[in-house]
Design a protein that fits this description.
This protein has helices spanning 46-54, 82-98, 107-111, 126-196, 203-217, 220-237, 244-264, 268-288; strands spanning 7-14, 18-27, 32-37, 60-70, 77-80, 117-120. By secondary structure, it is α+β, with helices and mostly antiparallel strands. A hairpin with a 3-residue loop joins β1 (7-14) and β2 (18-27). The chain is elongated. It starts with 6 loop residues before the first strand and ends with a helix.
Length: 292
């Protein structure tokens, strides 16, 4: 099944002490890149989050945002060092007396000095968070992967539609190519008749010329290989493993064959079909950039 590399998911896990929210979004990328943004108290769980994601995804750029809220757990406590504030004041008073200056001290002058205020952050219950966090992460990842699967189905339908157009053009190319040699024979005979008049045409030389031309413009092998690549592309779309890189390789081979067909052809109708096919393949190329 085709999976898009674009998705979004949100997960929530709670207990009596904490509430953890995880939001994850992904876009296309050649490899798997994980960017985890954790609040400072949860920094130690960075590796855990990355391992969960890397075990379930293969390609894409992932931005993972994690937030948590304390519930029953203790909140940070603001402490005031009154003795230090008094010491600051006394020091200011001594300076003022020594310099014979008026002393004008407001509360905010003291509270802004280092050490007067301090924030005591309680130690988090890592065991409790370690049990809760994977639940939120997997919940967000489940939602993200579901979205990727839904978009993957839409991509599959679009790719099959483009392949059908290429296949249809290829059938027309094959049919038209069967008349190319006959048309060339007719053109050569007309030219020779015009040039030689009543002189008899050397049928042996004409046959040799036509044989050389037929070999030069023969595209049967390219058509057969291109049809085979199209079928392989379709079969690959049905596999469960990540297929983005394989589809890209198959498409390169398809482009190689259609380019060869175009270079061999001297038929305007075939050349138009080649251009149309290459246009469809470019659209396929754009789509498979977003396939995992």
């Amino acid at each position: 099944m085709v999976k898009s590399m674009t998705g979004f998911g949100r997960g929530l896990a709670e207990n009596e002490d904490y509430s953890i929210t995880v939001e994850a979004k992904s876009v296309n990328h050649r490899f798997c890149e994980l960017y985890v943004r954790l609040p400072k108290p949860l920094n130690c769980f960075d590796d855990m989050v990355k391992k969960i994601f890397s075990s379930r995804v293969d390609r894409g750029k992932f931005d993972i945002f994690i937030d948590f809220e304390r519930r029953g757990a203790k909140n940070p406590q603001l402490n005031v060092d009154k003795e230090l504030a008094i010491a600051y004041y006394k020091a200011m008073l001594e300076i003022a007396e020594a310099c014979d200056l008026p002393l004008e001290v407001k509360v905010n002058n003291l509270t802004s000095l280092p050490g007067v205020f301090s924030l005591e952050t309680p130690e988090e219950d890592r065991e409790s968070i370690g049990e809760l966090l994977p639940l939120a992460v997997n919940s967000a990842l489940d939602a993200l992967l579901e979205m990727r699967s839904v978009e993957g189905k839409a991509l599959t339908e679009d790719l099959l539609a483009h392949l059908a157009l290429v296949n249809g053009a290829l059938e027309q190319i094959k049919t038209q190519s069967e008349t190319v040699v006959a048309e060339q024979k007719q053109r050569l005979e007309q030219r020779l008749t015009l040039l030689l008049g009543e002189i008899e045409v050397d049928q042996y030389k004409l046959a040799n010329e036509l044989a050389f031309f037929a070999d030069k413009v023969d595209i049967n092998e390219e058509v057969t290989r291109l049809k085979s690549h199209i079928e392989q592309f379709k079969q690959t779309l049905q596999t469960a493993v990540p297929i983005g890189r394989k589809l890209d390789f198959i498409l390169q081979e398809m482009m190689r064959e259609i380019n060869t067909i175009g270079s061999k052809s001297n038929n305007l109708f075939i050349n138009k079909l080649v251009i149309d096919s290459k246009n469809e393949m470019e659209r396929i190329k754009e789509q498979i950039q977003n396939i995992e």
